[in-house]
Amino acid sequence: MFDQSISTLAAQLRNKDISSVELTRYFLDRITKLDPQLNSYITLSEEVALKQAANADTQIQNGAASLLTGIPIAHKDLFCTAGTLTTCGSKMLNNFIPPYESTVTSRLQDAGAVMLGKTNMDEFAMGSSNENSHYGAVKNPWNQDTVPGGSSGGSAAAVAAGLAIAATGTDTGGSIRQPASFCGITGLKPTYGRVSRFGMIAYASSLDQAGPMAKSAEDCAHLMQAMAGFDDKDSTSSETANDDYLSNLNTPLTGLKIGLPKEYFGEGLDTGVADVIMTAVKEFEKLGAEVKEISLPNLNLSIPSYYVIAPSEASSNLSRFDGVRFGHRCEAPKDLLDMYMRSRAEGFGQEVQKRIMVGTYALSEGYYDAYYLKAQKIRRLIKNDFTNALKQVDVIMGPVAPTTAFGLGSKTNDPVAMYLEDIYTLSVNLAGIPAMSIPAGFSNQMPVGLQIMGNYFAEAKLLNVAHQYQQNTDWHRQTPAMAKGA
Amino acid sequence: MSIDKQDVQKIAHLARLALTEADAEQYQQSLSSVLSLVEQMQSVDTDGIDPLSNPLEMTQRLREDLVTEENRRDDFLANAPQTEAGLFLVPKVID
């Protein structure tokens, strides 16, 4: 039952084969039994879940149910959930009970989805391995000696292990796509501004974007139907009309033009990963697509540009954690300055402190032009690369990450090596375009994700392309052995 | 690009982070390696390129200047480390 699609479960709920309360208890039991191996949840919200499930059952009884009514999902612990602990993976927020609800979680709740709990993540979404969580590392369900990816590693591991039907994630530099790739699930980072950022604890505001993580593109489309769309509580929310993410899923791919950027297949790409990606591309050719080599010449510059822009915005966003209104406060501060300095030093982990300092430096007097402004100019070059390429092709494909999931602890001593892992995902956030990761095969028994990138607001197109592939392959139906242990 | 321990302490002060000597030594190395990484940008010619701050190049949306929020003082004070008489309490600022 843990590996069923949303539409199958919705049909079972409507036919009264099962109630939402039963389904929710089933998942809560699975989490209690299996999650000690993974640590994918920070908080289990059993009481809220059972109450929401009971409401869902009433709605189903009354014939007022949507497709998500009664479906148990999980939320990354970065979305504020009213009355439920929201830590953002940080000691700073280890006692923070939000007084309000994020737009994403509120829309999913309104659509009838049941919240099982809040998933583990890299502290303040800063990381690519989920090892930067104050609440402990998350293990990859396919091999518990490896990382699940980050920063939405808890969401990815929970979905892969069947500890939630789907989950929310956020993606500032790859944080939905890379863990989706490492854990063998489907994840979508929408266009910047497509999904509201209201109630999402901010990392880098010009890059942050929330999206769905699930077993399949079809399930992601169901979540997007509820999540996406204009929100006047988010000042950068797009007023562009929402698409119907379900109606185009079955459009054939005949004549689809796929671009393969040569920079995505160069030095550093693991050969096992490259083989999987090329096999997937051939599958698309069989489905009628045409493949063309393209170039995104400034790809390498996405790393330095991102590691100036994201820390700069983070240093500004995270200044709100001052020990005054919420969050950690140090013991016995001797004055206001002492309180700020010790509360922040105690509340933030090392990676967060490091990024705050990088950003503070880049924005400090005399350095702004050389760092922040320069990075924003390069950001435009990267955006131009994508807009030029997307004049020639409909979608761009390539790997999500250079390798499969790496070993726990294997990159923690060399953070720059960890940053280089994000080479194929960062540029998408800088440009603001949408992109997906879908399971495309295995290399050394570990999942490999194929990245599909598209034009601004082309989420429906990406979901269509991914769904057609998933109708003809079964990589997205593979389940790790530990998930069957219950 | 490398920075010394004094630079680290100066940045940490601007960022309001209390660092021990040992922390400063460690951050000196890790900050230097990040700054070397971002140094690559300086070799790129960006003359005449406009900086891009919002990927959709949106301008700030304005709204009517109306009160839309209700008073939820108690809810917001509930998360504060220390409060008194409906106010956030901080260490004494003025003698």
Automatic annotation (TrEMBL), chain A:
It catalyses: L-glutamyl-tRNA(Gln) + L-glutamine + ATP + H2O = L-glutaminyl-tRNA(Gln) + L-glutamate + ADP + phosphate + H(+). InterPro entries: Amidase, Amidase_CS, Amidase_dom, AS_sf, GatA. One of its GO terms (biological process) is translation. It holds the Pfam family Amidase. Keywords: ATP-binding, Hydrolase, Ligase, Nucleotide-binding, Protein biosynthesis. It is an enzyme of class 6 (ligase). Residues 22-463 form the Amidase domain. GO terms for molecular function: ATP binding; glutaminyl-tRNA synthase (glutamine-hydrolyzing) activity; hydrolase activity; transferase activity. PROSITE patterns: AMIDASES. The active site is at 76 (charge relay system), 151 (charge relay system), 175 (acyl-ester intermediate). GO terms for cellular component: glutamyl-tRNA(Gln) amidotransferase complex. Its EC number is 6.3.5.7. Heterotrimer of A, B and C subunits. Allows the formation of correctly charged Gln-tRNA(Gln) through the transamidation of misacylated Glu-tRNA(Gln) in organisms which lack glutaminyl-tRNA synthetase. The reaction takes place in the presence of glutamine and ATP through an activated gamma-phospho-Glu-tRNA(Gln). Belongs to the amidase family. GatA subfamily. PANTHER family: GLUTAMYL-TRNA(GLN) AMIDOTRANSFERASE SUBUNIT A, TRANSAMIDASE. This is Glutamyl-tRNA(Gln) amidotransferase subunit A. It comes from Marinomonas posidonica (strain CECT 7376 / NCIMB 14433 / IVIA-Po-181).
From TrEMBL, chain B:
It holds the Pfam family GatC. Keywords: ATP-binding, Ligase, Nucleotide-binding, Protein biosynthesis. One of its GO terms (molecular function) is ATP binding. It catalyses: L-glutamyl-tRNA(Gln) + L-glutamine + ATP + H2O = L-glutaminyl-tRNA(Gln) + L-glutamate + ADP + phosphate + H(+); L-aspartyl-tRNA(Asn) + L-glutamine + ATP + H2O = L-asparaginyl-tRNA(Asn) + L-glutamate + ADP + phosphate + 2 H(+). Gene3D superfamilies: Glu-tRNAGln amidotransferase C subunit, N-terminal domain (1.10.20.60). The keyword Protein biosynthesis applies. GO terms for biological process: glutaminyl-tRNAGln biosynthesis via transamidation; regulation of translational fidelity; translation. Its EC number is 6.3.5.-. The keyword Ligase applies. SUPFAM superfamilies: Glu-tRNAGln amidotransferase C subunit (SSF141000). Transmembrane segments: none annotated. HAMAP family: GatC. Belongs to the GatC family. Allows the formation of correctly charged Asn-tRNA(Asn) or Gln-tRNA(Gln) through the transamidation of misacylated Asp-tRNA(Asn) or Glu-tRNA(Gln) in organisms which lack either or both of asparaginyl-tRNA or glutaminyl-tRNA synthetases. The reaction takes place in the presence of glutamine and ATP through an activated phospho-Asp-tRNA(Asn) or phospho-Glu-tRNA(Gln). Heterotrimer of A, B and C subunits. PANTHER family: GLUTAMYL-TRNA(GLN) AMIDOTRANSFERASE SUBUNIT C, MITOCHONDRIAL. This is Aspartyl/glutamyl-tRNA(Asn/Gln) amidotransferase subunit C. The lineage of its organism: Bacteria, Pseudomonadati, Pseudomonadota, Gammaproteobacteria, Oceanospirillales. The gene is gatC.
